[in-house]
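# nightly structure sweep
# worker-07 picked up a monomer target from the shared queue
# config: single-sequence mode, recycle default, output format = structure tokens
# input follows
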Amino acid sequence: MDYLKQYRSFVNSYYLSEGVRITIGVALPAIILGYFHNLSSGIMVSLGALCASLPDNAGPIHHRRNAMMVCAVVVFMVSLITGMASSSPFVLGITILIFCFVFAMIGVYGSRATSIGMAALLMMVLNLEGRHYGWELFFNSVYILCGSAWYMLLSLSIYSFRPYKLVQQALGECIQSTADYLHTRAYFYEKRNDYTKIYNQLFDNQIAVHQKQELVRELLFKSRDIVKESTTIGRALVILFLDIVDLFERIIASHQDYDLLHKIFDNKSILEKFKQVIVSMSDELDGIGIAVKSNETYPGNANLSAEINKLAAYFEEFRDKTRTAENVEAFISLRQILKNIEDMALRINTLGKYTSYDKAVIKKQRQKLDYDEFVAHQHIEPKLLLENLSVQSSVFRHSIRLCIATLAGFIVSQFFPFRHSYWILLTIIVIIKPGYSLTKKRNTERLIGTIAGALIGIAALYFIKEKAALFVLMIIFMIGAYSFMRTKYLVFVLLMTPYVLLLFRLLSPNNFQMVINDRIIDTLIGSAIAFLANIFLFPSWEHEQINDYMFKMIEANLSYFDNVAGPLLNQEKSATQYKLSRKKAFVSLANLTDAFNRMLSEPKNKQKNAQQLHQFVVSNHMLTSHIATLAYYMPGFDKNNSTYDFPAAVKAVELKLKTVLAMLAPGKKGEKTNESDWRIFNLKIDELAEKRKRELKAGIFESETKKELSNVKPVADQFNFIMGIATNLEKMEMGKN
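# output follows
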């Protein structure tokens, strides 16, 4: 591992920037007001800032601004109402029930609304500790409102100074995720590889790439100034993103029959050489991602070009020495992989040049795209909320589950003499999620992080006695915790726990032992309640809804195939149609994979048809890859060649995929594929291949047959791969289980 590269990547990441921003926003009010002997007010201002930071996640600036404004008003009202209800445990219990349900239900409006709901519930829980009345209650709520306003101004001010920085950081992360995906694909060329392990890793990489691409789409295509390309840097960022998405498709299009390649070439060194070049390309791409994040010009790597030229020369020499009639098809596949590598290398080199933001370089003419089609729009309509007031809605069930669990935690806290029993409710609120798997993961990480973090905090206090040093260490823990808040929950809790312990030690040294006991015991109680609620209160299992993901996957792949193969039926597709279908296929694949991974973390008796589902996910990953490979060959393919009936092949594949789609939709029936047409199509391709084999046996290495086979065979192979996968999907009969 290149630790220097990892360090540069983290230092220039959005997450560290966010960690520093939140730390300043939260710590500064308490420090300043504490200096003027008004620490209690400073803490309330800091709490308001903390709540406002939750919906300030990456996205278009107007979305962030609007969310922070709404959040400020909401937490102000929640603080007032909770404070007024705190005088009566019964009224407070009713308030907790109502707030938990309402602020969990607004999750139907997306992740930013979910963050506002979480901020409101956080404020509710933190207001349970104190008892304020009259004007004191009102002024505390005003301090919270001021804290939210302060943080919003801080965040917007930073953005105004660096309007492109967030896009650069998100785009750099996207490029690095693509590099990870490319690196994983290199393992297909290893001897004695484990295909299951490789595919599982590819699934994780696919989900990461999808998440990063969606974020960049939001930032670019919902930010009108950037899309209008009013500046060179804005134009460069748009082109960089469009090119990295195209490159990702090329990476997926490198899929071949690896079993055949290993069968023919495993005793040679050529596959290992291919792997080394692919790893080098992934390293180059990772370096470009870091350069984009850090706003630096990537210097380029001349060694990569030399390495690829060396591989090409070795391939030519190796082929001429070992080519026979028996291995000619394997060499055709290997040649196509080499061409794909050369194409990807050119694209990577171009990406590196764009990091200079030079007008002379940023002159690429792009196809006109309707950018608005590529981003999802969340409309705040009451109708959506009403439609989800049903036990069929996972959000509704989550809301009921959270209400009951939080109320149970509140009742339990009334019978335990801990000074910080609100941590029980806080633990429940942050752990319980709509799905079982995420809740289970959060629960485990919360427990491990709390115990390990407490040990770190105790060790720090044992070895460090100076208050100034403890304060600096606390700030470091704060920055670290908020930097991992949205990405690695375990690390977040691991750093947040010593930060909280140091804070209480500085504020109240005499009660420090009680704080440690309360933190650990309350976390254990809250985790136990969350665990039981997750199992017994309206549980949501992935097998109940995974059929929808499967249907959308086949539907998206069918649309993607239609847009790729349409020209063979004289159906010209626009660039927007093609790229939109590609995006939907990639998104559906990531969603299906994510749902399957969540299912695997559920109890064994809830993992319905797990083996078949894994085969379904792998098959669709291969199906998408082969459609992408077909898209790679289509621009240079002679569509007017009437000798081979490619239109019939297109229709046969469409019928087969529609049959699979019908199997996943109860009540629908698919049409039978004309098998004779498919056999005739393959017979003509096989005759051409046999003719070429006879030429090779006769010592004829260059001929018109070779050129024709090189043009037709790769495309025909992709059709056969796609049809074979579709046929296997049909045999699975997933819709009948």
